[in-house]
Inverse folding.
């Protein structure tokens, strides 16, 4: 029996590629659905974000090649739906970035350290390793050595196993008699703080608009997607260090509260706009459009992560 290749999600990029944008929208409003949406509806949905016809169709084709979506046909009309496993991957990612930002007060003083080696020719693997480690709060400390303040040894091992990288050492350690560089120096905290300050300055006017009720369905869809995409970049920048390791008045909590308020409040209007678009091409599917709050994403994400764990580790 031929093994089914798991979905390969597009890279998250500044400015969001058409593939990444469509994946985001499907994850926000069509996750866990098995029905297929008309390609014309998905093209029109991308059109809300000024993605042209050619680029939208190319995004659909590339996501199909990546195994993120699957296709079907009825007559001359094409339809696309999330591939098996894609919903769980999207929910697991959503869980991580929604959970991120909540204060981490308890820390046992130990660092998680991973050591590994990659050859110069393994560029794609290198990107995947670095990206997944940053999501777990790691940063490079010395060549081939990364550190995180989180107790994520098991998660790191699972990520390396999924990537097929076996020559890895993972352990937990305390810092002893530092004589120069400390693990905290792996991060540029001033730069991270400035990114939070920029986030707050960018989205405070939007929060004021939302509180005043001065926003329509189309703008709600655009703004909700944009703020979520902006927030999603922080787990790769900020190691989510315990508060006692951070400078005073660290701005993460304020930024997190702004994100949650705007994202959750705009959900009903944004979903309404998606329904309006889908209804033009498939009225019977429009009613299935749903949105999730951050609390929903946390609950569904926990379930998805459990389903994705190796069978022998479940319920351990």
């Amino acid at each position: 029996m031929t093994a089914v290749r798991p979905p390969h999600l597009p890279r998250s990029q500044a400015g969001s590629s058409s593939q990444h944008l469509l994946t985001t929208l499907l994850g926000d409003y069509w996750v866990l659905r098995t029905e297929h949406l008309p390609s014309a509806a998905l093209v029109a949905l991308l059109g809300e974000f000024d993605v042209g016809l050619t680029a939208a169709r190319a995004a659909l084709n590339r996501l199909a090649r990546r195994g993120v979506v699957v296709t079907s046909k009825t007559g001359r009309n094409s339809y696309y739906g999330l591939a098996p496993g894609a919903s769980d991957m999207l929910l697991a990612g959503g869980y991580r970035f929604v959970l991120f930002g909540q204060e981490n007060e308890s820390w046992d003083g130990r660092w998680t350290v991973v050591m590994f080696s990659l050859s110069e020719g393994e560029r794609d693997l290198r990107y995947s390793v670095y990206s997944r480690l940053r999501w777990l709060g790691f940063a490079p400390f010395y060549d081939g050595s990364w550190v995180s303040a989180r107790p994520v040894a098991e998660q790191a091992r699972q990520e390396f196993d999924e990537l097929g990288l076996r020559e890895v050492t993972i352990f937990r350690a305390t810092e002893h008699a530092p004589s120069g560089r400390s693990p905290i120096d792996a991060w540029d905290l001033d730069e991270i703080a400035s990114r939070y300050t920029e986030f707050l300055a960018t989205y405070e006017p939007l929060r004021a608009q939302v509180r005043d009720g001065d926003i329509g369905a189309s703008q709600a869809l655009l703004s909700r997607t944009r703020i979520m995409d902006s927030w999603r970049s922080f787990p790769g920048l900020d190691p989510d260090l315990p508060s006692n390791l951070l400078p005073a008045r660290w701005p993460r909590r304020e930024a997190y509260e702004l994100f949650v308020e705007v994202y959750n409040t705009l959900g009903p209007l944004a979903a309404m706009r998606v329904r309006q678009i889908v209804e033009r091409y498939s009225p019977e599917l429009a009613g299935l459009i749903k949105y999730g709050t951050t609390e929903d994403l946390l609950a569904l994400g926990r379930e998805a992560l459990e389903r994705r764990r190796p069978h022998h580790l479940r319920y351990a």
